[in-house]
Design brief:
Helices cover 43% and strands 17% of the residues. Strands 1-2-4-3 form a four-stranded antiparallel β-sheet, with helices on one face. By secondary structure, it is α+β, with helices and mostly antiparallel strands. Helix 2 runs antiparallel to helix 3.
Length: 115
C-alpha cells in the first residue's frame, strides 16, 4: 500500500487501513508527516500550546476524532504540551498515520484560529 498525501481525508474503515506495515512502507508514510517520529515502535508527536485551556481543547478534539474513526491514541498532556503516541508498540498500520494526519489538520485549524 502506497501512502497518500491526503491522509487526513482517509478513513480507517477498510481492511487495508488495519494491515501491518513493513519498514519500507513505514518509511514512506513518515516522510509525509510533519514532525512525527517513530520512538520505541510508536508514532509520536508533541504539540505545544500557550495555555492549559488550549491543551485541553486539543485533547478533546483528538478524542472526538478518535471516536468518529474508532481508533484511539495514547494521550498525555500538561499546561503547555500534548504528547500523542499511536500504534501498539510493535507494529504500525496505515490508520496510525491517518489519525496522525487528522490530528495535525485539527491542530493547524485550531492554531490558525487562536493565533
Amino acid at each position: 500500500m502506497m501512502p497518500d498525501k491526503m491522509l487526513s481525508l482517509k478513513t480507517c474503515e477498510n481492511e487495508s487501513a488495519m494491515e501491518i506495515l513493513g519498514e519500507e512502507e513505514v518509511s514512506k508514510y513518515i516522510q509525509l508527516m510533519d514532525n512525527w517520529e517513530i520512538i520505541d515502535n510508536f508514532l509520536r508527536k508533541v504539540y505545544h500550546f500557550k495555555a492549559f485551556k488550549q491543551s485541553l481543547a486539543f485533547v478533546n478534539t483528538v478524542a472526538n476524532i478518535a471516536d468518529v474513526i474508532g481508533y484511539f491514541p495514547q494521550i498525555s498532556f500538561s499546561k503547555s504540551l500534548v504528547q500523542i503516541n499511536l500504534g501498539n508498540g510493535s507494529d504500525l498500520i496505515p490508520c496510525d498515520f491517518i489519525l496522525a494526519s487528522k490530528m495535525d489538520a485539527a491542530y493547524d485549524l485550531m492554531y490558525s484560529i487562536n493565533s
